[in-house]
Design goal:
Distance between the termini: 56 Å
Protein name: Acyl-CoA dehydrogenase family protein
Largest sheet: 4 strands, mixed
Family: Belongs to the acyl-CoA dehydrogenase family.
Number of strands: 8
CATH superfamily of the largest domain: Butyryl-CoA Dehydrogenase, subunit A, domain 3
CATH topology of the largest domain: Butyryl-CoA Dehydrogenase, subunit A, domain 3
Strand content: 5-15%
Helix content: 40-55%
Keywords: FAD, Flavoprotein, Oxidoreductase
Cofactor: FAD
Bound molecules: flavin-adenine dinucleotide
Pfam families: Acyl-CoA_dh_1, Acyl-CoA_dh_M, Acyl-CoA_dh_N
């Protein structure tokens, strides 16, 4: 059996030799549309070498990787400045959902193409009036003679313009959790219109997605009708777990920051204290993440919310500290990612996959048993 250290040296060797598609860098959970060619080429290389969908079981095309191997993979790819995969949605969110709720024919059809990177997936959950309050989803799927017809609007769909498929949360029944179902939507189907949203940093990773009388086959339903909430919770739980993997990459960010501040003579006592504090937080986060995988936490478990809050807020604070330390120099960078970008991405991470406020609500109610907040009537 391979040891963690032999896995590391094999991976490091492979990373040092694997040809880098032009323009490739560690773009995080989602590539920009302009990065797609490099991203797809990189994922194909990962797949060919057996490094795609590392934590999936072997029977579904993964490697059944141990916790130590997953941590090493996140660490080494961060140091090599390459992404861990094409994007987060297929490998980290949809794959595990299809393994749990998908029928065998769905697993056969979709899983191998996620491993190979031939299909990129996006997540069609949030709506203009249903973000934190996901149970308020209004997009409706109604039964037709041959399947389903979908009408509605989604927003903040990361990677929606490049994806082949989306995992959709839509209302098939009455109000609340129980009226929701999950579907596979081909993003090139008639009636799917994707409109890119330009962000404050000038990039465009999100989209609005308009669904107008989109016809889906009967077999597009994931799980049973009315099981959409369980599918959504598993998807969000895995998103929170996946974010924890960023912890390993944060060590690199801290090292880069310390080096840049040192070169500019800006490493005073306060800055050193701040860097040390962030390093400690990153270390705790890393062990919490490893523990969550090792314990096989279920998506509803509070450990996912702890991870989500800690990972996103530490990432945000590293960016903030970098901007404070480097001042205007945080706007420029010799490589692809100025620190100011890291700071903005960190703030975004405190929102995606359920905001910090929502995670704290979950912890307060489920873990501490504090009174539930009043429910608004819809
Ligand atoms: C980078 C990024 C990528 C994303 N990618 C996707 C994607 O691919 N697919 C997708 O479906 N969605 C995606 N999202 C959307 C994300 O899930 C939502 O932004 C998030 O759930 C918050 O919803 P909202 O933006 O509608 O804010 P709202 O729900 O309107 O919340 C506004 C503010 O009110 C606070 N708030 C709301 N309810 C409560 C409460 N009960 N108690 C305390 N405070 C509360 C929130 O914390 C927030 O600060 C992404 C978001 C970001 C930032």
């Amino acid at each position: 059996m391979q040891t963690a250290e032999s896995f590391r040296s094999e991976l490091r060797e492979w990373l040092s030799q694997a040809p880098r598609p032009e323009g490739l860098h560690d773009y995080g959970p989602t590539p920009l549309d302009t990065e797609m060619v490099a991203a797809r080429a990189w994922h194909a290389q990962l797949a060919a070498a057996g490094y795609a969908c590392l934590r999936w079981p072997v029977e579904h095309g993964g490697r059944g990787a141990s916790v130590a191997e997953q941590a090493i993979f996140a660490e080494e790819t961060a140091y090599a400045d390459v992404p861990r995969q094409l994007n987060i949605v297929g490998p980290d969110l949809v794959g595990p959902v299809l393994m749990r709720y998908g029928r065998p024919d769905q697993q056969e059809r979709y899983l191998p193409r996620i491993v190979s990177g031939e299909d990129m997936w996006c997540q069609l959950f949030s709506e203009p009036d249903a973000g934190s309050d996901l149970a308020g989803v209004r997009t409706r799927a109604r039964r037709t003679d041959s399947g389903w017809a979908v009408d509605g609007q989604k927003v903040w769909t990361s990677g929606g313009a490049s994806a082949e498929f989306g995992i959709l949360l839509a209302r098939t029944g009455g109000p609340g959790h129980g009226g929701l179902s999950a579907f596979v939507v081909p993003m090139r189907a008639a009636g799917v219109e994707v409109r890119p949203v330009v962000q404050i940093d000038g990039e465009s990773k999100f989209n609005e997605v308009y669904l107008t009388d989109v016809r889906l086959d009967d077999d597009a339903l994931i799980g049973d009708e009315g099981q959409g909430w369980a599918v959504a919770m598993m998807t969000l739980g895995n998103e929170r777990l996946s974010l924890g993997a960023n912890a390993v990459g944060m060590f690199r960010a801290l090292g880069d920051m310390a080096a840049a501040a040192g070169e500019r003579g800006r490493l005073g006592a306060a800055q050193q204290a701040s860097l040390t504090d962030l390093w400690v937080r990153t270390w705790i986060l890393r062990t919490t993440w490893e523990r969550a995988i090792a314990e096989g936490a279920e998506p509803g478990d509070a450990s996912f919310s702890v991870l989500k809050v800690m990972a996103s807020e530490t990432y945000r604070d590293i960016g903030n500290a970098g901007v404070e330390m480097l001042g205007l120099d945080a706007l420029v960078s010799e490589d692809h990612e100025p620190l100011v970008q890291r700071m903005l991405v960190g703030h975004a991470q405190t929102l995606l996959g359920g905001t910090s406020e929502i995670q704290r609500n979950i912890l307060a109610e489920r873990l501490l048993g504090l009174p539930r907040e009043p429910q608004l009537t819809r």
